[in-house]
Amino acid sequence: MGVSSESLSIHTLPPYEGWEEFKQRIDKSYQTYLAVTHASAIKSIAIRYINKISVSTDKINNLNDYFTVYPVLPNGVSGKISGFVYRTRSIYEDIPIILTVTLSDFPVPVGQTAFLLDLEVIQEWIENPLDVNDALDVLNELKNRETHVFESLITDRTRELFNVVK
Fold it and tell me: Is the pTM above the cut of 0.85?
């Protein structure tokens, strides 16, 4: 956890305990933060998930076996991609929530291939800050959007790597 007079950051590392348990830890930390700082408004809330996805090199033929978005070589260029970073930033139309998606390769030992799938979902209230009592509802909305994006970016083959087949 990271704390300052205007910031609260709560982290978790593998093994991920699941959203419900993590949300309870967030709520407890948030209530403690409010009691100490007496904050009355919030300027931004963010959720960020960094997923490391490892696959045996001999099982990788195409990135589209694992992801629904991926870099491709231009038409007429023969060869294999040896490294990449795919990044998009968008703003939802219904609520001004910023979504940043980064997919990249990740250095690992020979015989393995790994990818980072980094999802960040942010909502800001610069001119008209959010009341602190509404923060956890916003957090749930951001988490729902992150989950939807994650599920739309991976394939069933990737879900098998997480032992979560839907």
Answer: yes
